[in-house]
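User: Could you walk me through two proteins back to back? I'd like the raw sequence and the structure tokens for each, with a short line separating them so I can tell where one ends and the next begins.

Assistant: Of course. Protein one, sequence then structure:
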Amino acid sequence: MKVTDISILFVIIILPFIQILRIQADNLQNTAYKNMVIDRYLDAAVEDATEAMVERGTYSKAGISRDKALAAFCNTLYANFNVMGNEADQNYLMLYIPVIVLVDYDGYWVCSMEEYINSEGQKEEKMVWKPKKTYGYENNGYVYLFTLDSQVKVLDTSANRFYEGTQQELKTDVPDEIIQQDELFDAVRKRTVMEAIKRDVNDAINAHNTFAKRYGITYQFSPPSISDGDWYRNIEDIGFLAFFQGIPTGLQGMRYNSFALGAARIVRKEHYYIQQDANGLFYYHRETCSNLAHKDEVFDSREGCAQNGAFPCHTCAP
């Protein structure tokens, strides 16, 4: 056999493999592009939800609206996926959202699929908000209710006494090691917040498989592999956390699987509290002020306190 014949035979044999590799490479490139597009869609939806969730009331008081956050998230997602006005496609798209979490200052809400009986007595499946959960922890007879910063509530079960304040403020009243050791307090607080949210996210994602199968989705929803460090970095402030899994993005069963979080960036702001003094006048205080006895209404600006008729405290000089 001539060399030219061998060369032609080699080309004939190898050409299909080259074509297959080219198709696979194109598919991978197309999948990567689709993933990038969905990333942008999800990020935009979460950003809009985060902006909508914070309600600025009178005198700069901030509140959290779960319903407005969810509506903004869904509307942005529907618009980007071009399913506005198509309820059937919207419902199907939401099947790829196994769980949403709204992280609040002193607890969190989980939104996931639930089967319930509607007002007409019929079974209905829908994404609904579950009751708010706290960041609770028990140690040596003390029950802790943590927040996203150093503010904490502590119940001494043996003495049936309740304490509230920052970790530093409670050192004289609570002898437990968690309060007394700064690094331990911060580590336990972060882990408590992370483990509580992580546990409910995993439970919701696992339970979502039952609902997805009813609509013909064969993808196996499973908790994502997120390191503790990533959890800590993603849950530092009030925010909106959404998981998006299972939507097809390419050949060979490739599916999208990711999450996005938007932070409201209000926890780290200075908080001020108004309190009436013995002289009848109202003064606003920093949260660490020794004169502050009640923390019923929080304000996130001095201007808001002043507009509410309060003067700055002479002790903490806010």
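----
Protein two, same layout:
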Amino acid sequence: MIASGAQRRTMSESLRDRLHDRACVALVLGALTFNAILCFANTVLFPVSDILVIASEFVIISFAMVFALDRRIEPYLIVAVLVSYAMLIMAMRPMFDPKAVRDFLIPVAFYCLGRRRPSLALTDKIVLSAGVIVVAFGLFEYLAFETFEKYFNIIRYYVARGTVAPADVLAETGTLFASGLRPDSRTLLPFLGPHRVSSVFLEPVSTGNFGAILYIWALCRPGMRGRMILFACAAIVIVLADARFGAYTCIAATAASLVFYRLPRVFWFCLPLAMMCALAIYGFESMQMDWANDISGRILWTARLLTSLSLDGAMGVSAQKPFLSDSGYAYSINEIGIVGFIVFWGLFIFSAPADRTAWRLRACAATYFCLLLVISDSPYSIKTAAVFWFMLGGADAEGEKRVQALKLSRRSYDDVLAARGAVTA
């Protein structure tokens, strides 16, 4: 029998949906693991350069944009506005810095990719798969380290890609990243020793951040299949990486999930601005010069970095490129300016759908970002940002679908009441 036009359209849409689902899995998990793959290549196959790393990231982001965009006009407008602003910032600087464009495109690409086809089942599958991959790779690193370092020489990879200078390589950390060993006592389960597991991220800071991301998704998805497994993955990742920030973020996210509906959106909009003001006051007023590698020391250091910015740096047009990776707030302002930060944070807060479930995740995400920006610029790293923005996009799409269904049901109910009134009359 010859398929009808409607059947052919249904088959075409089904094939397109399957292709999109497979692309989502490949792109999100590819963004998660490509650094580990390149590290393996650099260790046992061929030398890796910074050009290859940049090209790999560019390919992933480009394909994410291709599969994210559809007939809706909103994603194109968002991309046009963000890229235009980034180009404006770069035009006002005396030097070309494409990193600003890249920092914008990662959240846009993966958020729109998650929104393309609402399917929380697909998002659950990807997040759970990512958690299992990170745990399995992390256990391999911890339990069989001698074998692991034969195939994954992490510090040599970072030197090859130009992130670490050869003179900065520490003999005591061996093949690990500089933060791969805890110089003082481990905070979480000290009997595990000083080794902080890096897993596929190749450095423990991102590993701990990813553990917090897994926890937030499991916390906000009570009906998810494999939820307890995801909670277990989050706990294992945070403990293996000895991630103090990850543990604190899980506590803060739990508190945010309990009170988010009592706090207006303007509170979440003002939260990072208030934190930056407090850090700036602390940086200007504190007379302490030395800082330790603990929470109070990291707060002091980020306050110092924030108050070290010039006026041009605060507006995002400075020609100077100081090292600001230890302060996400200082890095963000130096890259996009205080005006750009306020505008894009407002877009993040006020563009969330009215659905309660989606807004709960957005509140936890806002908590995560506000805390992480105190100590790191990791929110801009594709290793963890791809998964996180994909989660937000999927949750928002599902929330909008629920809001539209509710509006439709209310409209139908109103139509029934109107019809009954007309019959009665």
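The mean pLDDT is 83.

Let me know if you want the two compared in more detail.
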